[in-house]
Amino acid sequence: MSTRTGLNWQRVQALAAAERASYVARNPESARLAEEAARNLLFGVPMHWMNDWSTPFPLTVRDASGARFRDADGHEYVDFCLGDTGAMFGHAPQPVARAIARQSARGYTAMLPSEDAGPVAAELSRRFGLPYWQFALSASDANRFVLRWLRAATGRSKVLVFNGCYHGTVDDVFVDLVDGVPTQRDSLLGQVHKLTDHTVVVEFNDLPALEAALAQGDIACVLAEPVMTNIGMVLPQLGYWEAAQQLIKRHGTLLVIDETHTISSGTGGYARAHNMQPDVLVVGKPIGGGVPCAVYGFTEELARRVEHAKRSAPPGHSGVGTTLSANMFAMAAMRANLEEVMTEQAYQHMFALAGQLADGLRAVVASHQLPWCVTQIGARTEFQFSATAPRSGTEAHAAMDGELEQVIHLYLLNRGLLITPFHNMLLVCPETTNADITQLLDAFNDCLTAL
């Protein structure tokens, strides 16, 4: 018996074997397509991490709409992963689909502003409270560009991140605390520069550690999710961000809030909902309804500093932006998504369903007397293998169990339910229904019974 998860491992392993066999039997067409793709795709998939799901071979998607998708074998699934937030407002939302169809006949990219650019920036300013905006193709790019801007504006080289953080593929953030020592992640491929020379890492919710790091006076910015989400959700402790923001400002450091996942908190994100005052705000994959794009905004004061840094530099490439940044296609998608999909009404629907889901998960866990907890941030819910909610990246990592996660994920998938891989996160979208929640809770209960 595992004292941490409260489960018998022989039963876990037996169920895993049975679910793998069931998956293979159910999906002959996905198996055929995976074998065919492996002839020309490195690792057999378009991106190597698509092999990290719990499935014996990749599941091939045929089409997706709203809260559902179908695979190549014709099975329909209720999607609680939603592209790990990329499709947080549902697959192919109709207003975005119409805008894309219109724009497809009017051009994709021209390296010039489109008529949608000004309205999109104005809507971003209204929602998030920051007056000046720029665009990128992903949150990874946006965060990279922001770090470059802020290092130029402050004259400082270092960035501070939190242990276990996630900000896409930005080199600077691949540093963890290992026994209290900042350490470059072993999983990072091809890294030739020592990241710890310019990256400082502390635990989330640890104010003394944050203050000690800031006191050195060489940190350009703190780059943070307001709630950690990718190592398992870690909520800020009561009063943490109020105190942290005071410390950051006192030491002349800037605060960058990455809302790519926490946009689940409301129409203006977590920072707006909780009266935070970031200097920069980044939102990535969900902002265009699933079309590749990202946005980042500046305060008035910082915008002036950034402009000064650019105008004071010699002419030439700044290292910021690509030729497809703010392309016409993405701008049209963003405008439609912001104006017609990411509405207050949609969020209220998602909040109610996510609350129902969180309460239901807690009830199922309690009925099986398991030492697990459930956390909710707006439309985002997660169950974790710890009795109390983690307070840091280290605690969240200790609560993870990859083998158990994969068994649960595969069990649900075989019953027409997809949740996010790598951890136990579930999202609801405007098209999710009460019946979908009931189906998920019933299957989750059956899974724990089988375990």
Automatic annotation (TrEMBL):
Secreted is among the record's keywords: no
Domain of life: Bacteria
Keywords for the protein's UniProt record, in alphabetical order: Pyridoxal phosphate
Organism: Duganella sacchari
Signal peptide per UniProt: none
Name of this chain's protein: Glutamate-1-semialdehyde 2,1-aminomutase
One GO molecular-function entry: transaminase activity
Similarity comment text for this entry: Belongs to the class-III pyridoxal-phosphate-dependent aminotransferase family.
KW Lyase (keyword) present: no
Cofactor(s) listed: pyridoxal 5'-phosphate
